[in-house]
Write a structure and sequence with these properties.
heterodimer; A: mainly alpha; 7 helices; B: Ferritin
Chain lengths: 164, 157
């Protein structure tokens, strides 16, 4: 129905600023969670700070997804909207790269985080990225950050300041 | 008397017309998405959500008309046509089917965008002393904020 709107996903690249992000930048959402008194346990706080740091580095997409999945399983019931925003944001900034065994074929597909475990996400990406079903045996899936935004995560020290 | 003067000022300001047309596009896009959620929502909360979404898209239908008629009252033309409205609004379409909670969360994000733009339109109208447009936008924002409260309450774990 609204085709033009459907193609305009989260702002990325030079246009990606906190003010323009429809889903709010994941780092901002984490900061909001950390600011809310009693919203997270001590262990969750540690994991959120680690997740925030990984987003700032933007070098280990799979580790970031694994940490997100762990946090999501534990916290989503209490903070559904926050995790919805982070999920949508990650879907706009992480891509699955499907490579054939011989390296001759490569396809990048958007990551879909409908599942709670990374292996399931990988399987969905594999199905979406396979150009030919008979190539499944040798195909590898890697996750990569794409169009990493200009707005980088603040240093860990300033995140810690949020939680007092 | 002063109303006539302020209306003249507002009529000459294309920024206000653009802002109102943005609000029109937003309301129309959100109405379409709420309708989509009304049709496709599934699960144990189907009946209350189906009914709530219907009430919301019906209210948005009235809002669309009021905003468009305000544009005409300012001697300008309202935008129309699905692709034009969608392009102006820039509200992301759902990837249906989704879970009940995802429909609600996605609608929250869309309502928030509508409120943000509505606040800008309200303030612009205020700066131009166009109290009628300002009043219209205040009414719209109030309804969106109330809807946001209800939708967010649903998501509370």
């Amino acid at each position: 129905m609204f085709e033009a709107a459907s193609t305009s996903t989260c702002q990325t690249g030079p246009d990606c600023t906190a003010e323009r992000c429809r889903w709010r930048c994941a780092v901002d959402v984490i900061d909001e969670l950390l600011r809310q008194p009693g919203a997270v346990t001590g262990e969750e706080m540690d994991q959120l700070l680690e997740f925030r740091w990984q987003l700032g580095q933007a070098t280990a997409a799979e580790a970031t997804l694994r940490l997100f999945s762990a946090l999501r399983i534990g916290m989503e019931r209490r903070h559904y909207l926050a995790f919805f925003r982070i999920r949508r944001w990650l879907e706009n900034h992480i891509v699955s790269v499907c490579r054939s065994a011989d390296g001759a074929h490569e396809q990048r597909v958007p990551v879909r985080l409908d599942h709670y475990c990374v292996e399931a996400v990988r399987r969905v990406s594999l199905c979406a990225g396979l150009s030919r079903p008979d190539r499944v045996a040798g195909t590898r899936i890697e996750f990569e950050f794409q169009n990493w935004p200009v707005v980088a995560a603040a240093p860990r020290a300033s995140a810690l300041a949020l939680v007092g | 008397m002063s109303t006539t003067k302020t209306a003249t000022t507002a009529k000459k300001d294309t920024r206000l017309i653009e802002a109102l047309n943005l609000s029109l596009g937003n309301a129309y896009a959100l109405m379409g998405l709420t309708h989509l959620a009304h049709w496709n929502v599934e699960g144990p909360d189907f009946f209350p959500l189906h009914k709530a979404f219907q009430e919301q898209y019906e209210t948005l239908f009235e809002a669309v008309d009021e905003i468009a008629e305000r544009v005409r009252a300012l001697d300008a033309y309202a935008i129309g046509g699905l692709s034009t409205l969608a392009k102006v609004a820039g509200i992301e379409e759902f990837k249906a089917p989704m879970s009940q909670k995802d429909y609600v969360a996605a609608l929250i994000v869309a309502h928030e965008k509508v409120v943000d733009d509505g606040v800008s339109t309200r303030d612009l109208a205020g700066s131009l002393s166009d109290l009628q447009t300002q009043d219209l936008m205040i009414k719209q924002i109030q309804w969106h904020e109330k809807t946001l409260w209800m939708l967010k309450s649903y998501l509370k774990g």
